[in-house]
């Protein structure tokens, strides 16, 4: 079983190389494309189009059909008799049906201003979605580089297993011919079992991290999926390109547009109207018969004094703009602090990697000498294992620092928002 287990892990890199690979940028793209929130972008656009159509219909004629039948307790009567006149007072039961038409002629551009505001609101809402989707990048970074770390640790453990297996073969031959004590072989085999255990743990941890990444990008990932180690170039520009900055700008634009709507609401409104009807009586109240009739005319409505309501509304909008401005300043300040922290992390891991290379070079020389000593029977298996572990601990530290450096660079790009570099 141990041989089979080792064989499977030894061939794992060959299987993985034949499988589909996945890059960090592809993970970003898949998350933004498949995340449920992304669907709201198109839905909001359709909603805004419908709302603008409703507003535009305010320019079309408004037609109303009205009908009524009434009976009243009293009607107009002449207080005196007119000689030679047959005029009769109106009937107490009266009937009327009318078709009323109203056509907006001028309203100071209020409909256009409201349509413009709807468009500004749409752009702000869509940018808010872009900001929310952007936050997925940090979560993807954590999951992606966790998988990458386990992936590289697995390779190192397999390499360590290969070296250990070679020593076991050598020691087994020595035990067979009585040149080496059986305890030396047992020590090496115990270490082999420990490595198999570590490989199993790394494999399970990698599956767990892959599952988390799968949920973020809405793809089925398993241990046959290989993640590429990204080469991340850190942008040198100081100007941030975070989507939140564009959101703040759009919010200010939306508020400024709302001020235009407030101003337009007090403009005079001119309407043309027409009424065609049939009733008893008609427009001639002295004729007690069913008649058709019509009325046409113009109507002006102008609120010339609103008790300072418009002024107060505009002041409230200006205060809202100041709030947005302070939120933008706060974000920029915090973003700059995050950039400095990320730059510090990058410098730290680069410095650690320089030392890692020196440590590994020395550990390799020590292990080479130790291997020769073990082959000549000058040292015990335990002493060899100590130096073997020292070398691979150094290599694992180096791999950890490389992944941490790549993660720090990826986080730095997310913080700055410079993804076109």
Question: Which strand order does the major sheet show?
Answer: 2-3-5-6
CATH topology grouping: Outer membrane efflux proteins (OEP)
Count of the domains: 1
Class by helix and strand content? alpha+beta
Question: Can you tell me the residue ranges where pLDDT is under 50 for at least 5 consecutive residues?
Answer: 1-9, 11-18
Counting DSSP E segments of at least 2 residues, the number of strands comes to 6
Can you name the CATH architecture? Up-down Bundle
Shape: rod-shaped
Task: Tell me the series of helices and strands, N- to C-terminal.
Answer: HEHHEEHHHEHEEHH
Strand content: 5-15%
The CATH superfamily bears the name Outer membrane efflux proteins (OEP)
Instruction: Using the coordinates above, name the CATH class.
Output: Mainly Alpha
What radius of gyration results from the CA coordinates?
41 Å
For the termini, the CA-CA separation is: 50 Å
The major β-sheet equals: 4 strands, antiparallel
